[in-house]
Structure formats: C-alpha cells, structure tokens
Amino acid sequence: MRTRTLVTFMVMTVFLFRSDTGLAQQAMVFDDPRVGLAAGLFDAEEAIWNLNMVASVPPSENFIGVTNSDLAFKGNYVFQGNYNGVQIWDVSNPAAPVLAKEYVCPASQSDVSVYENLLFVSGEGTGGRLDCGTQGVQESVSSDRLRGIRIFDITDILDPQYIHNVQTCRGSHTHSLLKNPEDDENIYVYVSGSAPVRPAEELPGCSGMSPNEDPESALFRIEVIKVPLADPTQAAIVSSPRIFEDLTAPPVHGPTEAEKVVFAEARARGEFVVDMGARTMILPDRYVAMMSASYFEQEGITEPTVADTNAFREALPDIMAAMMGNAGDEDRGPDQCHDITLYPEIGLAGGACEGYGILLDITDPENPFRLDAVADSNFSYWHSATFSNDGKKILFTDEWGGGGGPKCRETDPMEWGANAYFTIDDENRMHFQSYYKLPVPQTEQENCVAHNGSLIPVPGRDIFVQSWYQGGISITDWTDPANVVEIAYHDRGPVSAENMEMGGSWSVYWYNGYIYNSEIARGLDVFELVPSEFLTENEIAAANTVQFEYLNAQKQPVYSWPPSFALARAHVDQLERNGGASAEEIASLRAEIDQAEADGAEAMVRRLQEFMEVQN
User: Is 413 exposed, middle or buried (0-12, 13-18, 19+ CB in 10 A)?
Assistant: First the structure.
C-alpha cells in the first residue's frame, strides 16, 4: 500500500472575505496531498495528516463487495452494519481487529444500535426477509418481507439470537435509540423510513395516500417503538408523531450548470433522469429494473415491449412523486426524516429531514414535538445532525446527490453539500453561523459527499470527526461555529481510476480513545490522534480518559471528564493557546501540576481544574 504522509506540510481552510450577509466564504485548496491520489481498491494511495492509522482490515468473504454501513460499539466490540447483515469485530487490541462473528441477514441499510444485551438492525428495502434468507422476496406483496427493525439478543455476542421484529409502513432507513434518564424499564427506537409505503395487504393500516385524502397516511410522520427491557419481544410502535405539520416546501437550488450538461447527456443515452424531491439524479440501473418490474406487473405486462418501456418512462415522474409523498402536496414540506440524533440528557433531538433541519423536544419520549425548523436554499438533503457537548450549538450535514455521485469537484459550489452550523438560543431557536465543506477538490470517480460523524471529547472544545465517502475523513474544530477549521484528515484515492465505483467512509466515530471508520468497500479502519499545533498531547490524553460501556452516535452521550493530571494540563495548554494567561502564569501552573502529581495531591488538581475551567 502506497502512503503519502505529512510531517510538516500544513493545509488550512482559507477564508477570502465576508459577504454582505456577514458569513465567511470558504475557498477550495488545490495545493494539498489529497489531490491526485492513485486509485485502487485495497492498494489505493493515501494521504494522512495529524492522525496515525492503527489498523485496516478487509471485509470477510460473505461481505466483500457489499456496502458497509453504520457502526455501533459495546465493550471491546464494534458492530458494523452491511447490506448483507452485521459483522462483529473484537477490538480488544485495536491494532489487530479480529472478526468475532459474521451474521448474514440481508437488508438495506442494516444500520445498527446496541443497548445492554440488545442489538437493533434497520431494514428498509423490499428484499429483506423475516427469516434472514439470502434469496430475497420477489412478490410485490409477501408475508415473508421484513421492513422495519430487527431485534437480537446479544447476551452472548458471539451467538446473536434473532428474537423479534417490528414492522413499519415505510421500513427503517435509519433509527436512533433513546434511553430516557427518568425511565429504567424501557428504551425507545425512533424510526426514519424513506421508502415507498408498503401495501395494506402486506401490513394492515399502511396508507400511501396524501394526508389531504387520508389523515392516517403513513407519510409525513416518524415512528416511535417502545421496547420493554424485561421482555423485548413485546416491542411495538406506540406513536407516529407528525413532526412536519404546517411546514411548507423548502427553497431549492436545483442542479449546477455542469450537472445540467451531465443530465442532458444521460437523457440522450436513454438513461432515466428523475427528480427526487429537490434532487435530480440519474436513476441507477438496479432501481430502474425494480421499478419497471413493479410497473409492468401492475399493468399486467409479462413480456414488455419497447412501447411498454416508453410508457414506463412517461409514468416515471408520477411514480417518483408518489414515492416521495408529494402527489397533490407539492407545497408541503418533508414527509420523512433521514436521521434523528437524540440528546436525552438535554431533552432535545436534531432531525435531519430532507428539506429541513428540525429541533425536537423529546422530554416525553413517546410524544416528541417540533420546537424549531430551518431551511436553506443552499442545502439539498439534510442528512444528519450533531450537537455540541453543551447543547448550545448544532451542525447539520447535506448529503447533496444522495451519496452516489461526486459532489466535491472543482465545479461544485462550496456552499452546496456542506455542513451548516447553528447556535441554539434560550427559546430553542436555531441561528445560522457558517458553512464548512471539505476544502480540497475530488474527482469525477469519487462519490465525495458529507456524511456521518461524532464529537471527539477534547475538554473545552468542539472537535468533530466526519465521513465524506470517497472524500475520506476530516476532523474539524467548530468551537467557534462561525470559523470552522480542519485539523486532521485521512484520504484514499478513488476505488477506480476509470469509473465512479462506490467506496469511502460511510461513518466514522470516536470510541474509547480510538477513531473507527466504516469503509464502504474496504472494511474497517482504526485511527488515533497524534499531537499537532492544533491539538496537544495533553488534550488527547484528557479525551482518552472518557470511557463508555457502549456507544451509538445517534444517541449522543454527554462527555464528562474524570479528575486527572492530563485534564489539568490540557486546560493549561488551552490557556496558553488562547492567550488566557501570561507566560509566567502558564509556567507556574504547570509547575504546580507537576508538583501535585509528584506529591499525589489529587485535591489540588481538582482545585486547579476548577480554576482553569473558569478561565476558559
């Protein structure tokens, strides 16, 4: 494997000027080691800065060539979702992950979450089976189909037991676990489904009609599942909150001029170019095959002709409108969330919901309600959300293009496909601060799009590690949400030098001192932070004192730091970096901490911590 390592070369995000809206404008950086990396599946060239790659392991045979998705953590295990099921990695030694268990159970996307002895897995596509069979489901209506949440007992992690499922009308694209601090008897699963509504003949009560026609429509709502911990087999939907009420269609930016050319060329070749809400995309062949087969079956066509295919092409706009839930409701806002990040300790959730970013009150887990909603014509598809540790800020990612196309090219606007940063005031209203986008151009062969990430628990700062698909991973400091700065990264060259083939970082999260990356095509990566001018050895050591028994990034935990000499020194480092004390004061504080450590004076360290937290 060829690696290009940075030692002294530093690339900073450049801000050119302030526009008349008062927002910093970000520029693309071309003199960067990530530009021009050689392609390859398992031998691509790499660039890395302020990180150390600890390990990289490929998928097992049953999962290679199939999309790896999200991650969850429990003890010394990493649960990696895959469209073929779940891989469980033993990371007792992070430098040498071992595949402890592979559980073949196909479904898209197989997003995963864990709590105590339970594992939850999302299923949305029409091919998922209740029995986890690999043969799929061919019938348009079938009692064998699974679309919703699978529940496994992982008391023995090496022998998961499939104990229950909860079916939903639109399946589960993603889900989030909510553990209410006031309730030790139940947990809740918030389900976001984005697929078409299944027939009532398959699941009674499912209606894909407009809410104007059917107030009980399965559109324009999320699902809340209640899971009794004493008997998880009794898990069931307890509410379907309509958190999108009264939202109107958001402003949209449409395609770029370069994209218009690409779409015109695709139409000329006979490909299917469709509108999905605010997004225009070239429909992948596998979706054309599935949707046309369904159309022909409904029309009673067994051997379609060219005329039948043309009829399908003409019907496609109406089919897509029905799928997106906007038939007859063009002025309505979103009918689904893509992802909901729950922060139960502050009673809030951030919903990334197609055309809006939504702030929810979740103090009553069964009945969440909307506090605020923001829209932005620069955003295409609100994908995920992350709060600052104190809950006073929130960032949203924009999965412009849906993850299947290149959106970090030189011709792509920096404000499109970016993160957007907001402060949250005392009335729970969100106020826009800035955008941040991966600052280096990627190629036509790389599906570079903003995706999942998590906070890194550096005390006193908001540090975010984030996936960008084939843009790699990027770590940013957003302590000042109006001035976001990249401080570390890792990137590989494209999977293929000739064609756009899926790959890159689906999700990347910090867990108990290491950074774990779910690589769509290449497996599992493990990284660790290294000291730099942006992050000191003491700050990294203090972050690593934060330890969890389990972690689901969409159930955001509160970071708190146990008393330690590393924490005290980290605060002093920050005082020095921020000019909060004179050189003499800094030297004196460090000497006192050194002496306290030599004397074993824990009480003095705690007093120093309190002093320095006030200073920061």
Answer: middle
